[in-house]
Model the fold of this input.
Amino acid sequence: MSNHSAKRLSVKVIGLSAVAFAIVAVTSGAAWAAVTDNMYPTANANLACVSESGPDGNLSCQTDNRTLTYYMDSSGTNELETEDRNVVNSVMNNIFEPTDLSVTLDTTPEFSGSAETDIVYEESGIGVPSGSDGVTFCNNAADSLRCDQQYIRILGGGNYVQGLTCHETGHAVGLTHGQQASPQLRNTDERLGCMETPVDYDERLQDNNIDHINATY
Done:
């Protein structure tokens, strides 16, 4: 089973200094296994992070800091069912928490102010491009590099699986597809792990992704 996701970039160009920001030192004592730079911004994904009112401008952004809070819509038409919530919690606790990110479920989410919940998961097809199963977009840019709050929308009907949830969450912390990486890889390169597209249902972060997350946060 394969699932697709979509990211489209905004039109505001980020400066070369921001591109250079992605070139960071590895934590002392850590083995560097990355084969390509797929942490935004890269030489092939260097457009500015800006706020979007909806997913029409889907772009890559880093999250605003290493403390990563998330919320799953719990009412209305975008509510996640129990099985979907279980998948999201598993991905966050077992795939992203072991990185240098500090992951916390936010049961009292904030949608405005200086301490917005970082990622909001919804079960929705609104704004998800045709042929795709999920999308990530920035709702409130903190600056041209980072987003204070991002929305992840994944279709219902069994599409909330580990691989796609990992993929869209990867976008929310700044990870890109292979063709946006530098040097470029095929989007189907297995070394991209869950950032491969199309992504298999059971994919998770691989060393290339983990190294860049840890070096960034």
